[in-house]
Amino acid sequence: MIAFDTETHLITPGDLAPPMVCLTWWTGEGEGRIATRDEAGDVWRWMLGTSEILVGHNLAFDTAVLAAEYPDTLPAIWERYEEGGFQCTYIHDVMSKIADGSFQLKYKTRQLGASLSAQVWDHLQEKVEGKSGEDIWRLRYHELDGMPLEEWPQEAIDYAIGDAVYTYRLAAKRGLPDAALPDELRQTHYHFALHLSAVWGLRTDGPRVAELERSLQARVALANRTLRERGYKSPKRKREPDGDLKLNTKVVQREVSLQYGELGWTVPMTPSGKPSRSKANLKQLPCRGGTCEGGTWCDNPLHILAMISEDEGELSKYIEHLKTGVDHAINPRIMPLVATGRTSYSNPPLQQLPRRPGVRECIVARPGRVFCGADYSSHELVTFAQVLLDLFGRSSLADELRAGVDPLLAGAAERLGLTYDEAAERLAAGEARVKKERQAQKAVEYGYPGGLGTQTMVQYARDTFGIVMSEGEARRYKRDWQRRRPETYSWFELIGDLTQETGECTVVQPWSGRVRGGCIFTSACNTHFQGLAADMAKQAFLRVTRECLLEPQSPLYRSRPVLLMHDEIIIEAPEEGAAEAAERLAEVMMLVGSKACPDIPVKADPYMMRRWYKGAEAVRDAYGRLIPWEPK
Asked: Which of 316, 362, 348, 349 is nearest to 217 (CA)?
């Protein structure tokens, strides 16, 4: 085992793989070694040529830096990842916490402790020196770039070598390389591919960003003025009547109780027993004096209060990042693995972009390029059907998917007393009743397999799909769903048996073998098919990245992956050949999907667009060739 680390220039906007200053390594014997940039290329090529396992902490960063510094080594780096020649103490720690069930709470409370210094403290009971303070070398290596090593301060040398030594000792303490967990080497490789996409990043349209910021600021100002006039907000300080405003909580709670009471609805309450003023609960109330459509507000002050939170959220979460994207690439931070197996994006949270137009459309392809995307059709329905087949040998959901039937429309047709063909014709004609019922079935088919109860289904349907249903309706939906899906009785019985004794269980993911511990009933339900869906998407992303970077014969070559949106992959492709790249993207996704779900047809639909739109679809010219989609 060889542990290694790099020291670089500071990360700056648009540069997530900054110039390297030095490479350090330790083999577990003698002293740690250091090489400046002039010498490090030969050392790195030597490492890649050995049979030793190469270990790093947050390995994806260091290998991306080295690939940028020495581009000729990228094929060897990729080969090393493919053959399991790299291991990452960061990934090992995350997967260990997922396996023992401690990840979720620590992640939510920001106590994951995955940094090198935190890991050294946890497992070696030592404090890593030089990680904090006013004059730490970690932030100063750019000062030494190009300077002969004999002129370096000894503190700078010791600090750099120390990271490699600590990484080796940490890996050895945790039993690496032999103690790698199931799926760990694949997840380590996924991290590299995801990090490379973050290095490439996304660009934005300056005028569009400026207009969005002006619009949001104006809406917030108007909303605050209206809410202040109606008594829902007031100045924080009496001496500053035109200063910042505070929410008059009691006034809002009283209005929530009043409006819910007028409708005969149960007033939603907080855990402390007060009327809830959450955005979801406020938006559930009906409009007054108009409708909240087309970017306007009705005359219900609670709707204005809910809407202003969306505007303020966009201003705080996205605007500064969008501004950065005008001159530099936006480099998101990607958590490569959470408990479900999915990824998580932050700074900005690209996987949680607002559904309404505005933020998304500010993101544009670079000159001479277009976005190509493809998303898995009915992704988690497909994986759930495969899981049911694997466990019980039967699945009505699988039967429908294999027959080419849309399960959502089939459920809607049955509820409405229509034949499937009649429902399909009415949906194509835009009939609102069929469209709404199909949307309700989406909540049912995606929510109930995860073990939702009736109360949580009411909230899930409302918050996720905009469908308002009562608890009685939710119970009827579940009854009808289980009548159509009789195998789900066995499904819930199995999960109940697994969690009965302690309330928790450990789940081994199908296909990948990844282990997730501490699963309560709902997470045990979800993780089977959601984990399979995540594994399928990440494996497809990995395959696409390889073809983009390393396979000149592929239509994807010279494209760059930019985003993994759970069931959707987006790349940025040279305009010449983009249509072929989009088709190949979808083809790769289906090839990978057919291996993960061999008994269910897996479909992925390609599209092209010049800026990021929600709901982009395939548009073809007279010759059947894909062309960029534009909203009508």
From this structure: 316
Instruction: Assign 632 a pLDDT band (cuts: 50, 70, 90).
Output: confident
pLDDT digits (tens, 9 = 90+) for 214-269: 999 999 999 999 999 999 999 988 877 777 889 999 999 999 999 999 988 888 88
Q: Take residue 332 and report the two structure tokens written for it.
A: 């998101």
DSSP 151: G
- Domain contains 341: no
Compute how many other C-beta atoms are within 10 angstroms of the C-beta atom of residue 554.
Answer: 18
Residues 311 and 358 in one domain: no
CB atoms within 10 A of CB 291: 12
- Residue 464: pLDDT band (50, 70, 90) is confident
CA 550 to chain centre: 25
The count of residues in the chain is 632
Give the residue carrying structure tokens 């081994």: 508
Range of the domain at 445: 380-528
- What does pLDDT average to over the chain? 94
Rg of the chain on CA atoms, in Å: 27
The DSSP symbol for 13 reads: T
List Cα–Cα distances, 378 to 248, 350, 565, 602, in angstroms: 44, 21, 14, 9
Q: How many domains does the chain have?
A: 4
Residue 36 inside a domain? The answer is yes
Q: Are 158 and 233 members of one domain? A: no
Instruction: Decide: helix, strand or coil at residue 155.
Output: helix
3-state secondary structure of 609: strand
Is the pLDDT assigned to residue 104 strictly greater than 80?
Answer: yes
